[in-house]
Fold:
Amino acid sequence: MAIYLEKNVGVKIADFGSFETVPPLVTALIESDIAALDAALARGLNIEAEIELSEYTQEIPLVLALAVHASASVHWLVEHRANLNRADAPAFPIAARYANPDMMRYLVQHGADVHARKKVGGDAYQQALYGKKIAHLPVTQRDQQAIRIKAVQAAAGTGGFLAKRTTTHRLAGLRRRFRRVFWADGHGAD
Structure:
């Protein structure tokens, strides 16, 4: 699990850090306390506003819920119209890094853009690699099938004639994505 209590440290949230104290809203998100989330919403909670965890760490509720695998909190945020395609925090790449494939599919069913890219960290494929979620790669590959052909055309500047003959493996080499090439080689790519 991405969150746990440590002696004399407080709460550790994924790779965001360890915090001695967290705001009550974060506790409600972590524990999937829907009653507390409803109460916060009734008091005027803006579900798109960043929550300050420390002087240098702020994050939106959806990212926190995904990072700690709080599926009930993610469902609650989606039901209350959290923006799944924020430019600074797109849900699909974040889910590829922290959540499970079922959560990734849930977000797509509710409008998350599978082609979204984080400003720093790239697309869902790169986030899955960074988060060491190799099991998520088939989900990101299947859901991003359409973008590959466009990426091949753009990378090669061909206007489309390579799309039928170019594999994802070759595209990764063209775009100097060598980690992808090595991974693909290890999994039977030609």
